[in-house]
Amino acid sequence: MTSRVRDAGQNTGVAPEFTVDPAMLDAISPSGDRGGIVLGSGLKGEPLTISALRSTPTRIVLVGGLYLARQVAMRAMAVGAWVVVATGRPTEWQVLARAAGSSGNDGRPSPLVQIRRLSPVELPRPSEDAPLLVVTDGGPTPQDLFPPRSPWQTTVYVLPYLHPQAGATANAADLVLMQRLPAGQAELAARIWRLPPQMMRQLTTLKDDQVVALGRNLWRPLRLVTTGKEQQLLGPVRRGD
Question: N or C: which end of the chain has fewer CB within 10 A?
Answer without folding.
Answer: N
